[in-house]
């Protein structure tokens, strides 16, 4: 996929996930979540070359300075990833984020160990994470799940789950709660599951 095609895809994802999005130009220039993702993609490409890892870290820190969003260059991010509002988002080095994932502000994908192993979470495709949620450790949040605002998640959640609370528990997501994120009229805020 070309750089321009990926850029268009990200802009389309922002427009489909944010009812406040007014147009491509505004999204391109004013959405810090998009800027953070684009900076991450560049720093991640550098990170994949061991001789460029210092440069990758410097680029990612510059991105943090510009956007208020910290994404370690070692994190693996899928397509059409969208961070709404963005302030205070932290994504650790070994985190893996699938396609069509959406995070709100204040989300942490953090570690619980200092070991140099997989220590950050994996979010499978189409996961939505509400504002202030903390997902910690080498756990997996299954595809098509939603994590409620301010949840503290330290255990795996299967596909099609609603994950809420401190410590978080999960329940199956009802068919009526599987509204497509691309339909703004059917948007469901994950904070409603608190």
From TrEMBL:
A cellular component term, taken from the record's GO annotations: cytoplasm
Alphabetized UniProt keyword annotations: Acyltransferase, Amino-acid biosynthesis, Cysteine biosynthesis, Transferase
EC assignment: 2.3.1.30
Pathway(s) annotated for this protein in UniProt: Amino-acid biosynthesis; L-cysteine biosynthesis; L-cysteine from L-serine: step 1/2
Record's keyword annotation contains Acyltransferase: yes
Pfam families recorded: Hexapep
Highest taxon of the lineage: Bacteria
Catalytic activity: L-serine + acetyl-CoA = O-acetyl-L-serine + CoA
InterPro entries with a match to the protein in the record: Hexapep, LbH_SAT, Ser_AcTrfase_N_sf, Ser_O-AcTrfase, Serine_acetyltransferase, Trimer_LpxA-like_sf
SUPFAM superfamilies: Trimeric LpxA-like enzymes
Enzyme category, top tier: transferase
Family per record: Belongs to the transferase hexapeptide repeat family.
Stated name of the protein: Serine acetyltransferase
